[in-house]
Amino acid sequence: MPASFYTTAFRNNIDFSSYKTKYGKAIRSFFNIIDLDKVLFFGMNDNAWGYKRYVFNKSASLLYDLSKITSDSSTCYLPTGIFSKISNYDRDYVYTYVSPGDLLKEKAGILSRYNNAPPPFLKELLDQIGKFSNPVIIQLKINPAVK
Questions:
Q1: What gap in Å lies between CA 91 and CA 89, rounded to an integer?
Q2: Averaged over 27-51, what is the pLDDT?
Q3: What is the spatial distance between Cα 105 and Cα 116, in angstroms, rounded to a whole number?
């Protein structure tokens, strides 16, 4: 919020709501903060109830919008929505998930990336998953290398 937020005496709730609308993109809160050795994952809410998830590379001072990260062979071309769902972690990994519905929607695209010959573990998963299966938990290794 702008500094004036803390010094303005709002006369009523309408004035307060108008102020928040005027500064709709101001940060309202942070959430899901994951502070690891080399990176910091976090989310931000704005006054318009929008939200974004980011990862900050501490050593290179670079900020990445997780909604703009693409999937590649290191993540088995899984749906890119997995990056916005990172919520747990341990020393070396962060954890996310993909719903069976999202995985089934992307199945043909994933198989085509591998010319219908995906790694055995991925083939087994894609063959067994159904729309009523449990979500798949994904373990991602953090590699903050900067090129």
A1: 7
A2: 85
A3: 16
The two structure tokens encoding residue 72: 């590649």
- Predicted TM-score of the model (pTM): 0.74
What is the spatial distance between Cα 43 and Cα 132, in angstroms, rounded to a whole number? Answer: 29
Residue entry with tokens 């929008």: 50
Query: For residue 89, what are the CA distances in angstroms to 13, 37, 45, 78, 101?
Result: 40, 12, 21, 19, 24
User: Which residue(s) pair with 62 in the sheet?
Assistant: 57
The answer to whether 86 touches 34, Cβ cutoff 8 Å, is: yes
Among residues 24, 69, 66, 30, the alpha carbon closest in space to that of 47 is found at 24
Span 80-109, mean pLDDT? 91
Q: CA torsion, points 138, 66, 22, 15, in degrees to nearest 10? A: 20
Compute the distance between CA of residue 79 and CA of residue 83 in angstroms, rounded to an integer: 9
The total number of residues written for the chain in this structure = 147
Q: Cβ(109)–Cβ(120) under 8 Å? A: no
42 pLDDT band (50/70/90 cuts)?
very high
Distance of CA 30 to the CA centre of its chain: 13
